[in-house]
Amino acid sequence: MARHLSGESRDWGRRPWRQRLVRLRRPAFLGTLRRTTPLSRYWGFDRGTPIDRYYIERFLFQCRDDIHGRVLELMDSGYTDLYGRDVTRADVLDIDPSNSQATIIDDLAVGRVLPSEAFDCFILTQTLHIIYDVRGAIATAERVLRPGGVLLATLPAVSRVWRVGADYWRFTEAAVEPLFREMFGEQVEVRSHGNVLTAIAFLAGMARQELRRKELEADDPLFPVTITVRAVKRAPGDPAQDM
User: Fold this and answer.
1) Structural domains in the chain (count)
2) Strand, coil or helix: what is 100?
3) CA 106 – CA 121 distance, rounded (Å)
4) What is the DSSP letter of 193?
5) Which ranges of the chain does DSSP label H, i.e. alpha helix?
6) How confident is the model at residue 242 (pLDDT cuts 50, 70, 90)?
7) I need a surface site. Which of 7, 68, 177, 188 has the fewest CB within 10 A?
8) Amino acid 104: pLDDT
9) How far apart are CA 214 and CA 206, in angstroms?
10) CA–CA gap between residue 198 and residue 196 (Å, rounded)
11) Domain that holds residue 165
């Protein structure tokens, strides 16, 4: 582990009296978080709105002009209905045929049923971490969009495990950007959202209603909770996109 530390960090590690001084100057009080079980096992849904939803919904609101025409969303059309503008058709994708709201049953990583170049917008929130073949899923997402169509995706940097044995990934901005650029080229905007407080609160199961707005709004790239991606499908033969 020492090889990954900067010289300054190693210097601090050799001076326990400095560490003690920091603890005295900035004492840590864990309070209700001093426990080995979370306040909520359901991402905070049973206490209010999960903290990551704050970043997801803020992102989709900011990109609401992209949600138009024929729109594809996972599991239900909730965000399409909430943020869509001039939506002509809302499709719902699910791998589970028992979902009565689904209009398309398919595996996003494979995309055997999904039509090519059919959608103007694809809302893909908090899904890629439970798909082992992430590249396959991103490739399908790019294929189903019309040229100029927009993918609005969110990925977790921090979260409890969705289901043991079926939750594969956590992401960083440094990994997400090249992953999406492989398929979409240069028109990819990636941002990280959150800070150390919201990360701790989200893991503990606190709800967004239990934090102040200024605490939610502070973004620290070293402690992201959610990564957002806005990717635009390139037009065929566009030299600016083939660089």
Assistant:
1) 1
2) coil
3) 18
4) E
5) 7-13, 16-25, 51-62, 78-83, 134-144, 173-184, 196-204, 213-217
6) very low
7) 7
8) 98
9) 16
10) 6
11) 34-241
pLDDT digit string, tens, across residues 172-198 = 999 999 999 999 999 999 999 999 999
Torsion of CA 145, 122, 131, 196, to 10 degrees: 130
User: In the predicted model, what is the mean pLDDT of the chain?
Assistant: 92
DSSP 207: B
Joined together, the tokens standing for residue 90 give 């809302």
Residue 125 lies in a domain: yes
- Whether residue 56 is contained in a domain is answered as yes
Q: Are 113 and 26 in contact (CB under 8 A)?
A: no
Q: Which residues make Cβ contacts (< 8 Å) with residue 61, sequence separation at least 6? A: 83
Per residue in 56-69, pLDDT (tens digit) is 999 999 999 999 99
Question: Has residue 86 been placed in a domain?
Answer: yes
Q: Nearest-CA neighbor of 229 among 183, 166, 160?
A: 183
Give the contacts of 125 (CB within 8 A, at least 6 positions apart).
Answer: 56, 60, 74, 79, 152, 153, 154
Q: How far is CA 98 from CA 71, 80, 104, 119, in A?
A: 21, 21, 11, 24
Structural domain contains residue 166: yes
Could you tell me the CATH number of the domain that includes residue 47?
A: 3.40.50.150
Question: What does pTM read for this prediction?
Answer: 0.89
Tens digit of each residue's pLDDT (9 = 90 or more) over 151-168: 999 999 999 999 999 999
